[in-house]
Amino acid sequence: MRKHFNYLLLIFLSVASVTYAQNSTPVVGKVWSIDKANAWYKQYKWINGADFLPSTAINQLEMWQADTFDPATIDKELGWAEAIGFNTMRVYLHSLAWKQDQQGFKKRMDQYLTIANKHQIKTIFVFFDDCWNKQAKIGKQPEPKTGIHNSGWVQDPGDPDSKQEANFPALARYVKDVMTHFKTDQRILLWDLYNEPGNSGKLTTSYPLLKNVFTWAREVNPDQPISAGLWAWDYKELNAFQALNSDVITYHDYEEPQWHQRVIDMLRSHGRPMICTEYMARTRGSRFENVMPLLKKENIGAINWGLVDGKSNTKYAWDTPLKNGEEPKEWFHEVFRKDGTPYKKEEVNLIKKLNNK
User: Keywords, A to Z (predicted)?
Assistant: First the structure.
């Protein structure tokens, strides 16, 4: 019943997007034409891969801070990804890591890109994020909470920081500095400006920052496309803005294939290339074996959440913590165990087959 309602809502949002387009002006700068976006997409073989955090990091700060940046693990784990044909990783940044050490942060980004490029992997970098813990702190990061999904992941710029426009000038300097430094870097596939705006109960309080980050990105005018993924179909105002100001349509969907197909059909109305930047939650019916072939058939990029079981604990489901830390009956996310062996060999065989490996 809920899903039937959601489908009706999707139809409504398609109409709402048209109305929005007729009654609003996009942010500063020029959204790529549909022809330009589709020509860009045709340069690449089928885009597929994972949202990547090395297994030794609990969150974005532990990944990017100098003391805990771990190129050896990144190299090893991206090698496992390359071996099954993954060619794209979606990687979250964090403004506090930049604020702490601006030049070092960019050097570590370059080092990451060098490693990824060695493994023939392109990168989607993510700037802001409304998910999970409200406040981040520079320095040593907490240890994982046993059996709890993403217990140490942190929002960026946090709550209430993301709602306070006094913070926007500093955030603009961050986005523009990083994007300007890498604006012609062919190792970067796409800039994902804001992950799940409005999540964690923020709703439309995230709208001002969302609009501003698109403005800042357009002022830089990178060679790479920009986007912000649609994810909550009842967020009408945010969805319309994201869809109409993105060069490439990105979105998240953790539902079963028949519902995922309806999202695809609705988003096709924009005429732009599409990349699903989050999917695959086994216990919710979104699996490699039923969704990944669908995305390939539809020529939609397929980026699943999670590569290697690690400190993020995302093998545990969002809403089913196991406080004793026992292995869940079925992993929620992730492809590989810490030693590089597949969680499910048949899944890895399918991924390799879809990638002609």
Answer: Hydrolase, Signal
